[in-house]
Amino acid sequence: MSEKRPTLAFIGGTGDLGSGLAWRFARVGFPIVIGSRLADRAIKAAESLSATFARGFAGMANIEAARAGDIVFMSVPFENHRTTLESIGSEVRGKIFVDTTVPLVPPKVMRVQLPAEGCVGKRTQNLLGAEVRVVSAFQNVAAAHLKSEAETLPGCDVPVSGDDADAREVVVRLAEEIGFKAWHAGPIDNAAVAEALTSVLIFMNKRYGIAGAGIKIGGTPTKI
Ligand SMILES: NC(=O)c1ccc[n+]([C@@H]2O[C@H](COP(=O)([O-])OP(=O)(O)OC[C@H]3O[C@@H](n4cnc5c(N)ncnc54)[C@H](OP(=O)(O)O)[C@@H]3O)[C@@H](O)[C@H]2O)c1
After folding, report:
1. By CB distance 3.0 to 4.6 Å, which of 61, 139, 176, 213 could disulfide with 39?
2. Over the stretch 53-91, which tens digit does the pLDDT of each residue have?
């Protein structure tokens, strides 16, 4: 990754997944902006990152965070996906937008329930429009594994879907910078697989007593 690292913004960055990803990227030196519906909550979360990594991080309301980020991650509950996108959409034009959303419909979170568009990733791309390069990733990563000093997180590979191959490559490299094995997984429609798989993983966690099951892609690549 070139010297000047992009600023990463986390919409819903006060939650389990958003704060976990922000923690791992902060740990390897990225400028981080924590977003929240409430600026005070974001500032508090950023202060805790600053205390952990002894350097400054920013916290602000989601719309300011979306404006401040070069690359914008979103991790809010599925039921708030559309309203959150509508509230920040104008600030992410021309950017890479990383959607981590899983279409979980409580209480049946162990049942696959994909939206009419086929997957959340597709809905996001449709809602944000062609000026935003939407990439879908991290759906199968259990947040509980993220805030660890481990250099690599071998327990879960990261499929990365999106219509723009260059944008996918940026996210594949970002995921590998924080210790994951990441894979190009094709166009945004293919996000349906990772999104659906999370309900199966939640079922397996319960059935087999696993603390955050993950996936591994088999086979030895002969091309990078
Ligand atoms: N947890 C995991 O292991 C995991 C793994 C993979 C994918 N995911 C996906 O990541 C997303 C977030 O999951 P999570 O476990 O991190 O959720 P979470 O901790 O329950 O919530 C994440 C953040 O979303 C914001 N939020 C809550 N209600 C909202 C609303 N009504 N409108 C807008 N924002 C709201 C909150 O931020 P503020 O109150 O500060 O605004 C909260 O901190 C979900 O789509 C989930 O499927 C989670």
Report:
1. 61
2. 999 999 999 999 999 999 999 999 999 999 999 999 999
222 C-alpha to center of ligand 1: Å?
37
- Residue 215's nearest CA partner among 205, 202, 201 is 201
Site to probe by mutation for ligand 1, drawn from 11, 16, 79 as the one with most ligand atoms within 8 Å of Cβ, is 16
Inside any domain, residue 20 = yes
Is position 118 within any domain?
Answer: yes
CATH code, domain carrying 150: 3.40.50.720
Q: What pairs with residue 99 in β-bridges?
A: 74, 136
Q: Which domain holds residue 56?
A: 8-208
**Ligand 1 atom with minimal separation from the 143 CA:** 3
Instruction: Convert the pLDDT of each residue in 97-133 to its tens digit.
Output: 999 999 999 999 999 999 999 999 999 999 999 999 9
Number of domains in the chain: 1
